[in-house]
């Protein structure tokens, strides 16, 4: 089973949204910049005025890797780790659903998987083409 996410004061909004099946990022009110992972201050203008914006969940694969030995903690077989670029321009590291390695540039979309403590984390699945 997948380990729970490590929650901190600044990241709780993201993980709580995942539990509701929502995929979000923080947005700076003064300069409209989106960022991920969550943090208290806009990385561009350092404003503390922020809101939460829903994301489309659509992305493309920029890179991937699969750990061979030892298997990742909590998994029988290590998942495929992917770096994706979201439609909104943000990049994030996640897992690809399934056993089939991606091709760089593959279209993927977000999904959520349960963790051992009943939380949820975002993962990505290939979009049928
Ligand atoms: Zn800003």
Topology:
Blueprint: H1 12-19, E1 24-28, E2 34-35, E3 50-54, E4 58-66, E5 80-86, E6 91-96, E7 107-114, E8 120-126
Antiparallel strand pairs: 1-2, 1-3, 4-5, 4-7, 5-6, 7-8
Bound molecules: zinc ion.
Zinc ion is lined by residues 28, 30-31, 33, 42, 44-45, 47.
DSSP helical segment count: 1
Find the structural class using helix and strand composition.
mainly beta
Low-confidence stretches: none
Order of helices and strands: HEEEEEEEE
As a whole number of angstroms, the C-alpha radius of gyration is 15 Å
> What are the distinct ligands in this entry?
zinc ion
The pLDDT mean sits at 94
What oligomerization state is this entry in?
A: single chain
Helix content: under 10%
- Broad shape: globular
Distance between the termini: 30 Å
Strand fraction: 35-45%
Instruction: Let me know the number of strands.
Output: 8
Q: Sheet with the most strands?
A: 5 strands, antiparallel
Going across the biggest sheet, name each strand in turn.
6-5-4-7-8
Count structural domains: 1
């Amino acid at each position: 089973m997948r380990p729970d996410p490590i929650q901190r004061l600044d990241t709780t909004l993201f993980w709580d949204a995942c539990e509701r099946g929502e995929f979000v990022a923080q947005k700076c009110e003064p300069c409209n910049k989106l960022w991920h992972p969550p943090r208290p201050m806009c990385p561009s203008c350092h404003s503390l005025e922020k809101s939460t914006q829903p994301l489309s969940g659509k992305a493309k694969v920029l890179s991937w890797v699969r750990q061979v030995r030892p298997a990742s903690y909590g998994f029988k077989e290590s998942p495929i780790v992917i770096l994706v670029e979201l439609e909104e321009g943000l990049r994030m590291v996640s897992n690809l659903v399934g056993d089939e390695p991606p091709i760089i540039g593959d279209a993927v979309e977000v999904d959520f998987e349960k963790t051992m403590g009943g939380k949820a984390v975002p993962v990505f699945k290939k979009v049928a083409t």
